[in-house]
Write a structure and sequence with these properties.
Blueprint (H helix, E strand, L loop, with lengths): L3 H10 L9 H11 L2 H9 L8 H35 L3 E4 H7 L13 E4 L5 H10 L2 E3 L4 H10 L6 E3 L5 E5 L13 H7 L1 E2 L5 E3 L2 H13 L7 H18 L3 H12 L2 H15 L5 H7 L6 H14 L12 H16 L2 H17 L5
Parallel strand pairs: 1-7, 2-5
Antiparallel strand pairs: 1-2, 3-4, 4-5, 6-7
Helix pairs in contact: 3-4, 4-6, 9-10, 9-11, 9-12, 10-12, 14-15
């Protein structure tokens, strides 16, 4: 069966297509992809399609859920800001939290499960202790996982508030230090910008896109792949509309941070799937980061399947294999072989034996 959600998003941006749509199937695919609230804004704010009455009921419900989450996040940010004021550190927000706080189009209808922030690595322990005093405690881990986070990861183990139950991810970089593409976090921190009329900070526009691209195309989980690709699409559209030199800045920044290949994939698949208006000259310029014609064809076969909504109607017989191969690839890209083999062996053993890691 056709992937109606992707087709709808494409038609709404291009042909204003009025062909008959299986709206019930569209809703199921949207829920699976985590973009129900975003579809609401494509309808309400951008007027990209006109749904029937029973669909409007579902979209309005998704809108209320998004507003409820936004209120919760705003309160959490207020409390976090008190902690960071004591530490004399800027509260730098990442991903969905940043989109929402900065009132970007990518924040409209954006649902996320945790709050992501960026701090200097040399202040990690200090930040961790301050957060504990304010009710944020790490999730329980066994000694292996704790050592893995401490030595190799770009973030602390997830922290959960003991009263409110909200989850916080504290990053000191956007990729693990074992990854060949791990950028200089100092450059990200130095270029962070203040959100006007607030005490919050976000990454520079170019860095924001490169972070999202790295997270999506160097990660191995695609349950929210289409949502993240839609983030990229909306960010590219908004930033390029505001700044005529944005595309050149983006290419230059990708070169500076060594993140050209994730950017190549981001431009390629947002254009292919969501018709993001990337000019031919920019596509050509980003092609210097291509992994090669043969590998690009292989990645097309994998990503064009994996980035579909995780719903049975969007899958073919190769979708499961494509997602599994990209999962293995993500570990290969982020870990050297002498760490990768024991790490995956342990995860496989825990899954086979249905054992808890702690």
């Amino acid at each position: 069966m056709a992937n109606l959600l992707v087709k709808q998003l494409v038609f709404a941006r291009t042909e204003n297509c009025h062909t008959s749509i299986n709206w019930e199937l569209l809703l199921r695919q949207a829920r699976a992809a985590g973009v129900m609230s975003r579809l609401t804004f494509f309808w309400k704010k951008f007027g990209l399609f006109e749904p029937p009455e029973f669909v409007i009921t579902h979209l309005n419900s998704a809108d209320k859920y998004w507003l409820s989450q936004k209120r919760i996040v705003n309160w959490e940010l207020h409390n976090l800001q008190q902690v960071f004021e004591q530490l004399k550190l800027p509260l730098i927000l990442l991903k969905g939290t940043a989109y929402s706080a900065a009132n970007l189009n990518a924040g409209l209808g954006r649902i996320f499960s945790d709050i992501d922030i960026l701090v200097p690595k040399q202040r990690l322990q200090e930040v961790k202790e301050a957060l504990k005093w304010n009710g944020w405690f790490p999730e329980p881990l066994d000694s292996y996982d704790q050592n893995y986070y401490d030595r190799w990861m770009h973030e602390l183990p997830p922290m959960r508030h003991i009263k409110r139950g909200t989850t916080l991810d504290v990053h000191h970089n956007i990729l693990p230090e074992t990854c060949a593409l791990c950028p200089d976090a100092g450059l990200l921190l130095k270029s962070a910008v203040n959100i006007p009329n607030s005490n919050y900070w976000i990454l520079a526009p170019e860095d924001m896109i490169l972070h999202t691209a790295s997270h999506l195309f160097w990660g191995g989980e695609f349950e929210n792949g289409l949502r993240d690709l839609s983030d990229i699409d909306l960010l590219l559209r908004e930033f390029s509309d505001k700044d005529s030199r944005f595309w050149q800045k983006l290419l230059h920044r990708a070169d500076t941070l060594g993140l050209g290949t994730p950017l190549f994939y981001a431009l390629r698949y947002s254009n292919k799937i969501l018709k993001t208006p990337v000019t031919e000259s920019i596509i050509t310029s980003s092609a210097i980061y291509t992994p090669g014609p043969l590998k690009t064809k292989i990645m097309d076969c994998l990503f064009l399947r994996a980035l579909n909504p995780p719903h049975p109607t969007c899958n073919d017989k190769w979708t499961g294999l494509a997602r599994w191969l990209l999962y293995i690839r993500s570990h290969w890209l982020k870990m050297p072989l002498h760490l990768l083999i024991p790490h995956l062996s342990r995860k496989a053993w825990l899954r086979l034996t249905n054992s808890q890691p702690y």
